Amino acid sequence: MRNIILFLVFGVLGFLFYESSSFLGACSGIAIFLFGVMCLKNGFSNFSTFIERVLKKWANTATKSLVFGAISTMIMQSSGLVSVLAISFLSAGFITLGQGIGIIFGANVGTTIVAWVIAIAGVKFDISSITMPLLIFGVILNFQSSKTTKAFGSILCGIGFFFLGISFVKSGFNELKDIVDIAQYGQMSGILGVSTFVLVGILLTVIMQSSNASLLVAITILAAGQMSYENALGFAIGSNIGSTVMAIIGSIGTSIAGKRLAAAHLLFNSVTALIAVIFLHQMIYVVRLFCEAVGIASDDYILQLTAFHTLFNLVGITLMMPFIEKMVWFLEKVIVDKKAKEYEPIYLNHAIVGYPDTAIEALKNEMEHLYDNCFMVLTYAIGFTRKEIHSDTPFREIIARKKLYRRDVDFDNFYKKNIKYLFDKIFDFATIAQTHTNDKEQVNEIAHIKNAARKAVESIHQLKMLYHNFKEAAQTQNEALRDLYNEMRIDLAELLRSIENLEKSSDENIQIILSSIRKGSILLDQIDDNAINKIEKLILDNKITATNVSTILNDIDTANKVSKDLLSMTQHLYAAYYAPAPISDSLVSPKITDSKLQ
Nearest 10 degrees: CA dihedral of 320, 326, 327, 328? Predict the structure, then answer.
């Protein structure tokens, strides 16, 4: 169906291009303009690490987030792109919802700055003569081997195509007015005209996925005298609302936080548009006063349109900026996080894969999610609850007072759905993220996360073989056999408790815990010898039979492998605390790993 619609659109456009070279020129200009925006986006994407670090440093308050949003939109020429990036960063846990809203507000300010550039440099003055040198220099730089040089080449090409597109659109609409009388539609008066062009602005922005491109159309049609000033204002208001569509599309498949930010974008732009429509004449009056004060002619409707676009965005920001915290509260109440499926990734979003710091943060958070799933099945398999692991109650005391394994668990199904599927997603995302950075530290950090995920999954795979024997031993009448298996369960439970304690510890305490774990890991190699001696004594005392021995030894060995996998996982997650050599998979330690790799 989609291909059929696309074919029909191409057919209609082809016919119109054949009938009108002016229409072809105008559409070519829009295409060149949008291609320029794409070149700018591609050029600046090579500075993704720099953008991330600026964001991390600058976006720690709502005001700074607003400034970041404004500057980045002005540079990248796309408020939609900045909105999608903000949603992606928020979904990865890189910024808060309040900071994300600040960036959205700033993106709207940035759009107004771009509108001034289009109006002054693109329409009021003809600077197309400088576009050709920019394109030539840009292409030359794109043929260089340096990645940074290529990026600058893409940026120069983007600027060149940006202004070349404006020139084509302007000349196209100037010629088109002599063939088609657009004015008969553009001169609709009153609220009907404004409302109609609000809808036109929304529709055109949605189609072109660029509010800047739709503003360019509005400004050039107004400059050609084919649309009334008031209707052009409605067009500008509509372009603001239409710009939210890209953010809404970008929020699909993101976390609940990303969806809340997309809703905040829609709410802000809709409220701002409503204010602009209701107080349209009052704002027109304020714009007229401003233009008189700065020397803009009373009949210069192009700059007055741009001033109006700036005014209603600033009014919206001024009114809503003090209520960001209230907006966050409202969005969290209205857009409720329904119980997510444990096996679905929460933080991984391929829109951020080219931003290494953010991608690593997302991987850390997703690794926490994987560990939570592993922890759930680990605790049940050894006969304890999350609450009991987190408590200070001795495990022997817990065992003495509770009946274990009241219900069965489908290990195979849980492993495939909640563990293996999520692991595959983490591994795939991490592998792609590694290709987007040449920084050795970042590559190593991603490798540690991949290895941690692998060890977590292996621990579950090993424990699957122990579960049924733990369950049978807990219910046996043979006290000696029951005690042997209880010791294994207690050792694993103590390990999990130590791992969980890492999450709540300060850096200093983490070092202490890891140090004790490293020492304790040495004891794992002695367990087999101690176990054999203990089992031999139990046989001599007739407390267990020789037929039990091979099963017990296999289970002890498996329990040790589970411990080593968990310890290796922890060492990868806390690699920063192990200096200075990289952590090898062969190193193990007994009780570690919080998957909260913060």
Answer: 140
Question: Are 103 and 74 found together in one domain?
Answer: yes
CA 3/CA 465 separation, integer angstroms: 51
Residues found in the chain: 598
* Distance, C-alpha 84 to centroid of its chain: 8
Work out the average pLDDT over 495-510. Answer: 72
Question: Tokens 């920001």 correspond to what residue?
Answer: 317
Q: Do 295 and 358 share a domain, yes or no? A: no
Q: Which two tokens stand for residue 456?
A: 């977590």
Summary mean pLDDT of the chain: 78
Alpha carbon 164 to its chain's center: 33
Residue 340 lies in a domain: no
Residue 587 lies in a domain: no
Phi and psi at residue 543, in whole multiples of 5°?
Answer: -95, -25
Q: How confident is the model at residue 516 (pLDDT cuts 50, 70, 90)?
A: low
CA distance readout (Å), 441 to 105, 360, 574 = 34, 11, 14
Same domain, 414 and 272: no
pTM over 0.90: no
Distance between CA 71 and CA 107 in Å, rounded? 8
Any residues with CB less than 8 A from the CB of 161 and at least 6 apart, and which? 32, 33, 35, 36, 39, 131, 135
Note whether 289 and 140 are same-domain residues. Answer: yes
**Boundary of a domain, candidates 334, 367, 383:** 334
Q: Is 578 helix (H, G, I), strand (E, B) or coil?
A: coil
Angle at which helix 211-223 crosses helix 190-208, to 10 degrees, equals 130
> Is 354 part of a structural domain of the chain?
yes
Interval 447-458 mean pLDDT = 90
Amino acid residing at 522: I
Beta-carbon contacts of residue 403 (< 8 Å; ≥ 6 apart): none
- Parent domain of 437: 350-577
* Alpha-helical segments (H) within 505-545: 507-540
- Pair (292, 212) in one structural domain: yes
Q: What's the pLDDT score for residue 509? A: 61
Q: How many domains, the chain?
A: 2
* Residue from 507, 509, 506, 499 nearest 571 by CA: 499
Same domain, 143 and 12: yes
Q: Do residue 228 and residue 362 come from a single domain?
A: no
* Contacts (Cβ under 8 Å, ≥6 apart) of 358: 52, 88, 89, 92, 94, 352
How does pLDDT run across 219-230, given as a tens digit for each residue? 888 887 778 888
Q: Which run of H or E residues covers position 561?
A: helix 546-573
Domain boundary among 334, 367, 386: 334
Same domain, 543 and 512: yes
What are the tens digits of pLDDT across the range 274-284?
Answer: 999 899 999 99
Is the residue at 586 inside a domain? no
Residue 577 has pLDDT above 70, yes or no: no
